[in-house]
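Team,

Forwarding the record for the chain on the shared tracking sheet. I've put the sequence and predicted structure together so nobody has to dig through attachments.
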Amino acid sequence: MRNGADRIRVLYSFPHKLGAGRICHTALQQVLGLAAAGADIQLFPGVLHKPVPEAVRVRPTLARGRVRVPYKLLGKLRALSLHDYIVARRIEKLAGEIDIVHVWPMAALRTLQVASRLGIPTVLERPNAHTRFAYETVRKECHRLGVVLPPGHEYEYNERILLREEEEYRLAYRLLCPSDFVVQTFLDQGYAPQKLMRHQYGFDDGVYHPSREPRDRSRGLIMLFAGVAAVRKGVHFALQAWLASPAHRDGAFLIAGEFLPEYREKLLPLLAHPSVQVLGHRSDLPELMRKADILVLPSIEEGSALVTLEARGSGCVLLVSDAAGAECTHLETGLMHRAGDVEALTRHISMLHEDRGLLERLRTASLSLAPKMTWSGAGVKLLDVYHEAIESYSQTGHAVGAQV
């Protein structure tokens, strides 16, 4: 199916504003990484929010020039369905020009069906754990804490969305999993190992890099949390562990991110401690990371949080749960605890507070591997995954790939 130069021809379908925040940033970096790695890309974003290389052929589905389909007015689910419908129709006319189709959740049903009928392998991005696992885990922890998610919150249990996503899982030839944790949540739901393919996310080493200034070992420990301060991120575990550790006596715990109001209300007694600084949303995260000693992320559910890669590239030692989806080897490049284990997290904070030699050894080892985790490296890895999926599809066909 490939052209004479053996360049993989990718149809990349992304239903949101490519280049905006969160997953929109992830998708843009994937496209840039793929283009740099040599992929031939036809890009169908909902809206192109930031530019891409000229070699990438772009045809937005929900915008023409400056005119855009208003997502809020149309409704998010209807907008995603419209994107899916348009991409599926375009594939019909491009069948001989595509080697693989890369799609994102909640905007892929028709696209996957048409690609399968035309004999084109498909990969579905999984930026988070299996949705059923995520819903159930977050619901259980919210109930334990007495926190009610606001109506329409992305982690509020929604049967309609869950069933739609599970149908996409079934139809996709392969599921792209950015961490071993994500893989495990699908294995636990009964999915065949061969359906799950590991790729990786990355960070921009031009933005996230360590400080050249030597660190003052005599000052107190600086621990940083960065991201949306939500129940699933485990900020409550981090606060409990920080205040139980001697590190809080002369150190600082910085929380950079917006809180869900009810969640913040529950945590007010802990947040009021003088060693805790709630910074709100910040635009200077790279600088905060360069000043911090530790990046803490005690999540109960993740995909592969970009913040762990960015912090690592900035010189932070990772202090993460086994559900954070982080590239972290315990006691080699960081410290990892079982999700929800506050005692273990407390010990880990205390270890780094009391043994600055250990902190520096972990930091040095972590930084030595960071160059392999950039977005450029992620693009090469993703292209390799495409090669593997195409080869497997040519040998076994879609029927095998669809097994759960």
